[in-house]
């Protein structure tokens, strides 16, 4: 029996601009976290949350003039970190449905999350039967993870990225650039983190001593909101008509 053809469902586009994912790429000590902390004080946004991974400066950046965010607590495990991102996703969705100001999530930094997954993958490879056999022969042997282990790491990464990309609010991801302050060439950042730029609506680049060439267009008059061009009356009008 042939399956009946579903009825075509359509609607007119609303013109509502989706909230962006912002990737701040910068050299060490270029002010990425300072810029993100300042943005959390933007009066056009709602509650801001700060997820710190592998850093220890989130408490300090609360002293940035205008900064207003809550620090997310976690025990350092992937499962707990994922759970906290899911909790922010739920709160962001609630705020969006209630037509409240957009929730902001700052992740400092995305590259440290991928580093955590790399370490987890390497440890699994060393604990595998093949790895244990190699280490018995050469205790310092390099054990290369198999493709299925890397696939598991990629799946964990994509679970986080799915939440980030479907969050109906503003997400600010902090990540490295290739060169450090003083022009020293740095190790290339992880391929998975490099891929964030393609999925981000805005890329904001910082150099040591100044803002780079990736500043978003249409920055708001309030300097705290300059990181993201937050649509004000135009967005609310479009949502009201939707």
How helical, in percent, are the residues? 25-40%
Largest sheet: 7 strands, mixed
Beta-strand fraction estimate: 5-15%
User: What's the CATH first level?
Assistant: Alpha Beta
Give the number of domains: 1
Shape annotation: flat
Order of helices and strands: EHEEHEHHHEHHEEH
Output mean pLDDT.
77
Report the count of strand segments: 7
How does this model look, in words?
The protein has 242 residues and is α/β, with parallel strands linked by helices. It has one domain: P-loop containing nucleotide triphosphate hydrolases (Rossmann fold). Helices cover 38% and strands 14% of the residues. The chain has 8 helices and 7 strands; from the N terminus they run βαββαβαααβααββα. The protein has a 7-stranded mixed sheet, with helices on both faces. Strand 6 and strand 7 form a beta hairpin. The longest helix has 20 residues. The chain is flat, with a radius of gyration of 21 Å. The C terminus is likely disordered.
